[in-house]
Amino acid sequence: xxxxVESGGGLVQPGGSLRLSCVGSGFSFSDYDMxxxxxxxxxxxxxxxxxxxxxxxxxxxxxxxxxxxxRDDSKNSVFLQMSSLKVEDAAVYYCxxxxxxxxxxxxxxxxxxxxx
Amino acid sequence: xxxxxxSPLSLPVTLGQPASISCRSSQSLVYRDGNTYLNxxxxxxxxxxxxxxxxxxxxxxxxxxxFSGSGSGTDFTLKISRVEAEDVGFYYCMQGIERxxxxxQGTKLEIK
Lengths: 116, 112
Hints:
The complex is a heterodimer of chains A (116) and B (112).
Chain A: E1 3-7, E2 10-12, E3 18-25, E4 33-39, E5 45-51, E6 57-59, E7 67-72, E8 77-82, E9 91-98, E10 103-106, E11 110-114
Parallel strand pairs in A: 2-11
Antiparallel strand pairs in A: 1-3, 3-8, 4-5, 4-9, 5-6, 7-8, 9-10, 9-11
Chain B: E1 4-7, E2 10-13, E3 19-25, E4 38-43, E5 50-54, E6 58-59, E7 67-72, E8 75-80, E9 89-95, E10 102-103, E11 107-111
Parallel strand pairs in B: 2-11
Antiparallel strand pairs in B: 1-3, 3-8, 4-5, 4-9, 5-6, 7-8, 9-10, 9-11
């Protein structure tokens, strides 16, 4: 069974940093692109970025230069390093496994609160 | 970026009645391989999104057959033949043809 488990969320002050992790199991992790998607409270879904299976990374314009995605295939993990956090970055952050432009599997999400 | 526009944004439905959600993209979602990368997700209250439909009309395993997807090019529809109480929640379309992947605003389905 495919499972994705996020961790690392919490309360952080504006301008602060946080590192999220997502561990995958039940599949060959290194064979898949792994994405981060976020959902602000009461809002819709927003693509944040990707760690490609060839270690390429992409980031949404809204987070470029502040967030960095990386992965460690030996640990079946993908990471989201968030810096210079803004109030508008507050959201539930999901990791999702991409396969041909679709997310069959999502994690349960981890909540990031940005507040002073 | 590809803009995804859903309608309606609110959908009150009587139990047992049909429901339909429209999704339009700002550009064609047909990829050079001939496939159309349009997905539908359901998000029940307090849960992660769950994929219902991929490539316009392919239903995921375990998704009831009352859910169906159709459309082509830039116009797509999710239909529920007979709404049940467990269908309450938000529905999102998403394009997977180019990054950034983009989602529709979401449609809130509620029981009338």
